[in-house]
Write a structure and sequence with these properties.
15% strand; 6-stranded parallel β-sheet; 2 domains; Rossmann fold; alpha/beta; single chain; 18 helices
């Protein structure tokens, strides 16, 4: 099967949620013998250097950088046209011209199906698909996420206002674009429920969760943290608004309570792109803000507790799935566990109040044997339900059905 993939990211390196999902799904499709052509837009100029890493996955590769100037004019046009900022921000005349030429090429002539990754690529896919069926991978429900963000007192005012604006348009766009697609995929039942509730026909959307790559997880390094310190760890892209806001909430309101009960405890915020507002908490003593690291797994394996203090979140939280899959006890907020079924939620500690969050961490640090037994249940649950091989087979089935390929 020949597959055209349109995406607003460069799916390498696979270190954050969107990149991780798309990269592994593309790997699975390639492993199953399908031919892939990839057209990428990106806001990160450094991504242009990643083309050599993607060449092994695809036959044709196009990468375009959306500049700040492009973004500004796109957002202005979106405001005038009544579009969400999320969708309007990734308009590209160059991409339209390149796709027009692609459809006239020998590669475009044999395409069976188009896979559009994220809502923001729906216009590019559905306005110029040359009669080919389109499968739209929304990944997360942006309607639910924008509503949470707009109501979150701790979030930056500008972000809250932008989320409020986007929410009303996303409610419409997350129904209208998927309705035009042959099929839509999304990462969790909770996200699918919101979109169906907004008006999308239930038969038009399928839940396609991420996998967890446990086979590639390295062994824990011996010098990750200072010896003899009980470690509380949070992994993720620290420049991502929900991660940053959650970490700041944790440091200001939860961490002092933990330290009062466990003075030797160490907190590590592990992951790329932390801003100065977070980096200033790094003191090398009881708080570490590492910035980018090649792999987060060693930091989790050496920690006594993994946390997810997100107060607004959407989709599947890979940080939680990975922690559970590695057998690390997890304390998380309700917002960050919406993707988990009841059986999965029983394998971790859920707390929203700062005192309850701190109490759960202290309980794990002081009674590690009990916590580890619960974590082992989580490890088995993830292994049984979340694998990339399973996700790849499911996506292949969806694409074949959409493309009429047996």
């Amino acid at each position: 099967m020949n597959i055209l993939v349109l995406t607003p990211i460069v799916p390498y390196p696979p270190h954050d949620g969107d990149k991780l999902r798309l990269y592994h799904l593309l790997q699975q499709l390639k492993k199953r013998g399908h031919t892939i052509d990839i057209f990428c837009l990106t806001r990160v100029k450094e991504d242009l250097a990643q083309n050599q890493h993607l060449r092994a996955l695809c036959r044709t590769l196009y990468i375009e950088h959306i500049t700040n100037r492009d973004l500004f004019f796109n957002l202005v046009a979106g405001l005038l046209m009544g579009q969400s900022l999320n969708v309007s921000s990734y308009f590209s005349p160059k991409l339209k011209d390149s796709l027009r030429a692609y459809w006239k090429s020998k590669e475009g002539a044999v395409v069976d199906v188009v896979l559009a990754h994220r809502l923001r690529m729906a216009p590019a896919a559905l306005d110029s698909h040359h009669g080919k069926p389109v499968v739209l991978d929304l990944t997360d429900c942006l309607t639910a996420y924008s509503q949470q963000l707009s109501r979150q007192p701790g979030a930056h005012l500008v972000r809250r206002l932008a989320a409020s604006w986007d929410h009303w348009f996303l409610r419409k766009e997350e129904v209208e674009w998927p309705q035009q697609a042959a099929m839509t995929t999304i990462i969790s039942e909770a996200d699918a429920h919101v979109i169906v509730g907004n008006g999308l026909a239930e038969e038009k959307i399928t839940v396609l969760p991420n996998g967890v790559d446990l086979e590639a997880a390295p062994k824990a390094g011996s010098k990750i943290y200072p010896a003899g310190r009980p470690v509380v760890c949070f992994v993720g892209n620290m420049g991502y608004a929900p991660n940053e806001e959650g970490t700041l909430w944790f440091l200001k309101t939860v961490w002092p309570l933990v330290k009062a009960k466990v003075p030797k405890a160490l907190f590590a915020a592990v992951g790329g792109a932390p801003r100065e507002v977070l980096k200033k908490y790094h003191n090398g003593k009881d708080v570490l803000v590492t910035g980018w690291v090649p792999q987060v797994e060693p930091y989790l394996l050496k920690a006594q507790v993994s946390i997810a203090p997100l107060r607004f979140a959407g989709g599947m939280q890979n940080k939680i799935a990975l922690s559970m899959g590695l057998g690390v006890p997890v304390v998380a907020t309700t917002a960050s566990t919406g993707w988990l079924p009841k059986q999965g939620k029983e394998c971790l500690f859920i707390a929203d109040d700062h005192q309850a969050f701190a109490d759960s961490i202290v309980q794990i640090l002081q009674k590690p044997t009990v916590a580890k037994a619960q974590a082992l249940k989580g490890k088995r649950f993830i292994a049984q339900n979340y694998s990339w091989d399973k996700a790849g087979k499911q996506l292949e089935t969806i694409l074949k059905k959409a493309g009429g390929v047996k």
